[in-house]
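[job 4471] stage=fold_predict status=RUNNING
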Amino acid sequence: MPKRTPTAHTAEVASAFASWLRRRREGAGMTQEDLAHRAGLSRNQVQNLENNRNNNATGRSSANPSLDTLLALEAAFGLALGELLVEVREFMDSAER
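[job 4471] inference complete, writing structure tokens
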């Protein structure tokens, strides 16, 4: 099965998520390594998410974190289920972007 190309909306959300993640991490006074440790991820995963890229050969597709990754990030930030997605949506709708 060929790899699916992200839609324009998916790319927009992925870009907003990447910006939100970096600002949220920095606002919490964490390094990428700190966040990775708290979330049970690798620093490389956090870096890829913040740079909106998948760890693949093409480098053309947007980062697409799994549900496991999103839940791990929520736990690392002390958020309840779903709060991360609400924060990202509010960030997208704000002028902070």
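[job 4471] summary: The chain has a mean pLDDT of 88.
[job 4471] exit 0
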